[in-house]
């Protein structure tokens, strides 16, 4: 075969696709991922020394897997059979672990622990954990979900996503919502600053100095926000916020406002205001679908970077902190990038409904 350190590695389309998939693997397949990356690097025409330096592995390692790939192609990258202790866990035991995890619960319990299940099946807790990992089972985890019952779900998703991906000409699109009851919390003891090896520490108890509501309208094209602080979030407060949006929006532009189904957004006082301002049009998200409103992503940033670790000795301190943070945001604003089409969102909802509608559920 000659000197494999210099022999070029040429990949077919199937081999390249397979190696790229292997290269993305983690955890138990990490060894195979490294081998795939080595071969992909060799296919770029690099010699063993360059590949070793770029991937932070030894040159002997590069030489070994280049040689095995050139000799056996993809089969050469998998582990060869090794001598060892005979397998002690049977297929029946593996099946029992999986079936019990999916279809049963322990007596007086809500989910299996590895020790409880190991005792029932007759294997070690470590073996149960390996089986769970192999089948992607995580009985200790739980998540919440809510599928919108909105009869106009499809139409509303297409409407809102269409505004994100293809906004109308001569128009501005605002994602609008309220963040109610923002609390001015003062810790009962001074915050202890971070030091090497110790994170910042705060007392768990606090004194509350009142609350404030925040109206926000996110310009989906620029990322800038128009905001208004209010003591409440009634229909008249929402109407006043629409006035603020109207004042700060260039005349002559149509204004599309994306908002949720809060009763204040549909009150008669709001309808009357909209009739007097025909350039405004409200677009409602599906019920229980706040995730589709981009301003919620902005509220998450506000919570993480301003409120969650803030200490406010008065309501005025809270308002000042909010106004300063919003000003900084607008000075360096960037829009959030929406990538999913309406069809992709609806397809994913359909796939999830199919999964949870199977007989096991």
From TrEMBL:
<dbReference type="InterPro" id="IPR036397">
    <property type="entry name" value="RNaseH_sf"/>
</dbReference>
<dbReference type="InterPro" id="IPR052702">
    <property type="entry name" value="MscS-like_channel"/>
</dbReference>
<dbReference type="InterPro" id="IPR047655">
    <property type="entry name" value="Transpos_IS630-like"/>
</dbReference>
<dbReference type="Pfam" id="PF13565">
    <property type="entry name" value="HTH_32"/>
</dbReference>
<protein>
    <submittedName>
        <fullName>IS630 family transposase</fullName>
    </submittedName>
</protein>
<dbReference type="InterPro" id="IPR009057">
    <property type="entry name" value="Homeodomain-like_sf"/>
</dbReference>
<feature type="domain" description="Tc1-like transposase DDE">
    <location>
        <begin position="192"/>
        <end position="319"/>
    </location>
</feature>
<dbReference type="InterPro" id="IPR012337">
    <property type="entry name" value="RNaseH-like_sf"/>
</dbReference>
<dbReference type="InterPro" id="IPR038717">
    <property type="entry name" value="Tc1-like_DDE_dom"/>
</dbReference>
<dbReference type="Pfam" id="PF13358">
    <property type="entry name" value="DDE_3"/>
</dbReference>
């Amino acid at each position: 075969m000659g000197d494999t350190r210099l022999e070029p590695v040429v990949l077919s389309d199937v081999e390249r696709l397979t190696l790229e998939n292997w290269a993305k693997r983690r955890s138990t397949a990490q060894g195979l991922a490294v081998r795939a990356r080595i071969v992909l690097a060799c296919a770029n025409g690099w010699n063993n020394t360059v590949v070793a330096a770029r991937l932070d592995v030894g040159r002997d390692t590069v030489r070994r897997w280049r040689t095995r790939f050139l000799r056996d192609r993809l089969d050469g990258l998998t582990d060869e059979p090794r001598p060892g202790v005979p397998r002690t866990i049977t297929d029946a035991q593996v099946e029992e672990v999986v079936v019990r995890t999916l279809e049963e619960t322990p007596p007086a319990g809500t989910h299996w622990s590895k020790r409880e299940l190991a005792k029932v099946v007759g294997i070690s807790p470590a073996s149960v954990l390996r089986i769970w990992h192999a089948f992607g089972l995580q009985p200790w985890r739980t998540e919440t979900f809510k599928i919108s019952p909105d009869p106009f779900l499809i139409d509303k998703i297409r409407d809102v996503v269409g505004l994100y991906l293809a906004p109308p000409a001569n128009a501005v699109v605002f994602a609008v919502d309220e963040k109610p009851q923002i609390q001015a919390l003062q810790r009962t003891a001074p915050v202890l600053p971070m030091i090497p090896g110790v994170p910042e520490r705060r007392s768990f108890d606090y004194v509350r100095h009142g609350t404030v509501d925040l109206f926000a309208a996110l310009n989906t094209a620029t990322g800038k926000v128009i905001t208004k602080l209010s003591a409440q979030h009634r229909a008249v407060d929402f109407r006043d916020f629409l006035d603020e949006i109207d004042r700060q929006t260039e005349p002559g532009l149509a204004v599309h406002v994306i908002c949720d189904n809060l009763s204040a957004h549909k009150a008669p006082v709001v309808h009357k205001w909209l009739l007097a301002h025909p350039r405004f049009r409200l677009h409602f998200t599906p019920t229980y679908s706040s995730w589709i409103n981009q301003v919620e992503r902005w509220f998450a940033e506000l919570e993480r970077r301003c409120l969650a670790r803030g200490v406010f000795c008065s309501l005025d301190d809270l308002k000042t902190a909010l106004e300063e943070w919003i000003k900084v945001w607008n000075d360096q604003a960037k829009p959030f990038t929406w990538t999913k089409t309406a069809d992709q969102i609806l397809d994913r909802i359909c796939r999830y409904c199919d999964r949870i509608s199977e007989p096991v559920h």
